[in-house]
Structures are given as C-alpha cells and as structure tokens.
Amino acid sequence: MATRPNAPASERNKEAILEVLSDELRDCRAILEIGSGTGQHAIFFASQMSWLSWQTSDRLENHVGINAWLVDANLDNVNPPLQLDVLEPVTFGDKFDAVFSANTAHIMSIAAVECMFRIVGERLNDGGKFCLYGPFNLNGSFTSDSNRDFDLSLKSRDPAMGIRDLEKLDYFAAANGMHRASLYAMPANNMIAVWHKN
Fold first, then answer.
1. N or C: which end of the chain has fewer CB within 10 A?
2. Exposure pattern of 113-147 as b/e (b: 16+ CB <10 Å)?
3. What is the pLDDT of residues 159-170, one digit of tens each?
4. CATH number for the domain including 119?
C-alpha cells in the first residue's frame, strides 16, 4: 500500500474551514475539489458532510498519495482523483454544484489562477459556488506582516508565486460569470472567498 502523504497545514486549518463549508455547502450535492494535494482535506470534509459527493482532482503526480488516503478512509462519498492541471485542457465533462480549492492560488502563476477561474465557471451549475481558501491581499495591500513575509518566501522559491489581490480574483470571477457573495476571515491571516455563478 502506498504511504499516505501528510500536510500539517491541512490538519491545522480543517476545523475552521469545515465550519464555513458546512454552511455554504448545505444545499449542494456534487462538489469538485481543485488541487486535492495530499487528499487529507477531501477525506475529512467528506466524512463530516455526508450529503456531498466529493470529487478529488489534481495533477497526475499527486494521485498516488490521494488514492492512499481514499483507500484507507473507505468513504462512499469521495471519488478517485480526476487528472486536472489548470493549464491543460479539461478532459472531463462533469458539472458540479460547488467547487472548493485550498492554498492553491498563491502557488500558481497568475495565468494559472486565471485558468482556474475559467474552469470553475465552465464546470459550475447555474447558482453554484466557488469557495477558495488561502491568504489574499485586500485593496492591493497585505493584511499582516506575516503575509508580507510569506509572499517574499514564495517569490524566493518561484517569482511566479505570490499572494493574490482579492480584487484581481473578483475580476477573473466576473469574466467567467461569477460574483463574490461572501468573505470569511480565518485563522492565521487566511480567508475563504465565496463566489456565486450568476
């Protein structure tokens, strides 16, 4: 059996995210997670929100780790990962009531973030929701000194990475038929932004 990868951040933030998602997704049934990473979030959230059918997705190199978590958890409402790189053509035609993604926008290039919003707009049913968790800038400014330091750390790894301005994400959303309906402050200077498909 494959070793399950472990992302400590997934364990630290899962309860706070669940509190928001359990309310935002209470009327949803089918959800796509973009960038499932280790698979830890998928397993936890699906186990706590049994009414959801949770579709994992990620680039192919992460599938072994995700599947290891899925096999161990043996949940009926989590589906094996779809192959999804936001910079490549989407190979599946499914539609979803909601899309969730965590800690992805700041490690993608801005071009990849724009592609992610396009994919979300295409894959959401009318009235669907996109819930994006992570650090964001507001009005072009960092919301904390720690986020400023984090941004410098990201850019030292890859100049294409960085904390994104929420207003820029709103622009990407609007270009793909969505508008921001909610913004939640989260621990450790993170947020959850929720856009609705018009």
1. N
2. bbbbbebbbebbeeebbbbbbbbbbeeeebbeeeb
3. 999 999 999 999
4. 3.40.50.150
